[in-house]
């Protein structure tokens, strides 16, 4: 696991976009695994800026998102479908039929397995962008999730619902379930890019760096088994850690 220290969220966005662009430039039909949340917003801004200024094309790119709330209509402003449209898709030339998100309204075991099949049929994820929850969740894989699981439906913890309540008008509106790529799905990606920003992630970052064995109580620890993980973290996220070098 390579850790890249950056000053703040802006620099994090720039560095993360650079890693993603390297993948697209090398492989114009790359499959990108995408994430939502506050952390990747700057990364998407940088990618949009690059598309506008340098013309990087997404015409051949395919994207698959990590997760979506269960039961939420894709047109709902709080759906991850809407998040992706508003932060990224509407600004780039990615064809409509080349971006995929888990279906919030089709969540049987069969539907979940079909999402993994879809990813396999695209040739697998070349680069998976990830954020981390304060409790170590990746995607929506909450603590206790088996480390080899594929796409599945999860019951969200109170802490995750509270952390995401800032996007809804009240906590009671935050869905109780989500459909997410599993940790097994994530580990199949060829490359993982984890971005971590803010003091509220410092403890999770500390735990991740100290993880020596993958344990389901702290889902992000599964990443230590993966051969190609880059973590870009800002100063506040690294505040509990002493790094030898930047
Ligand atoms: N499902 C998402 C995760 O994929 C994301 O990593 C996490 C952290 O989000 P933020 O970047 O807003 O802290 O939030 C949500 O739970």
TrEMBL record:
It is an enzyme of class 3 (hydrolase). Signal peptide: none annotated. Pathway: Amino-sugar metabolism; N-acetylneuraminate degradation; D-fructose 6-phosphate from N-acetylneuraminate: step 5/5. SUPFAM superfamilies: NagB/RpiA/CoA transferase-like. The active site is at residues 67, 135, 137, 142. GO terms for molecular function: glucosamine-6-phosphate deaminase activity. It catalyses: alpha-D-glucosamine 6-phosphate + H2O = beta-D-fructose 6-phosphate + NH4(+). The keyword Magnesium does not apply. PANTHER family: GLUCOSAMINE-6-PHOSPHATE ISOMERASE. Catalyzes the reversible isomerization-deamination of glucosamine 6-phosphate (GlcN6P) to form fructose 6-phosphate (Fru6P) and ammonium ion. NCBIfam families: nagB. This is Glucosamine-6-phosphate deaminase. It comes from Sporolactobacillus mangiferae.
């Amino acid at each position: 696991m390579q850790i890249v220290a950056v000053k703040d969220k802006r620099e994090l966005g720039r560095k993360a976009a650079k890693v993603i662009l390297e993948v697209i430039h090398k492989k114009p039909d790359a499959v990108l695994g995408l994430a939502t949340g506050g952390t990747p917003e700057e990364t998407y801004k940088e990618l949009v800026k690059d598309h506008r200024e340098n013309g990087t094309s997404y015409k051949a790119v395919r994207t698959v998102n990590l997760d979506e709330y269960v039961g939420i209509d894709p047109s709902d402003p709080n759906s991850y479908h809407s998040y992706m449209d508003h932060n990224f898709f509407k600004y780039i030339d990615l064809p409509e039929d080349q971006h995929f998100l888990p279906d919030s309204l089709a969540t049987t075991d069969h539907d979940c397995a079909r999402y993994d099949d879809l990813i396999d049929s695209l040739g697998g994820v070349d680069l998976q962008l990830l954020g981390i929850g304060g409790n170590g969740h990746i995607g929506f894989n909450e603590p206790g999730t088996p480390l080899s699981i594929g796409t599945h439906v999860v019951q969200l913890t109170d802490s995750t619902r509270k952390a995401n309540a800032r996007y809804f008008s009240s906590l009671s509106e935050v869905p109780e379930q989500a459909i997410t790529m599993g940790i097994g799905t994530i580990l199949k990606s060829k490359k993982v890019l984890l971005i971590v920003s803010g003091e509220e992630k410092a403890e999770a970052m500390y735990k991740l760096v100290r993880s020596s064995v993958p344990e389901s109580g702290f889902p992000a620890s599964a990443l230590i088994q993966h051969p190609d993980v880059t973590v870009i973290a800002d100063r506040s996220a690294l505040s509990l850690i002493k790094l030898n070098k930047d």
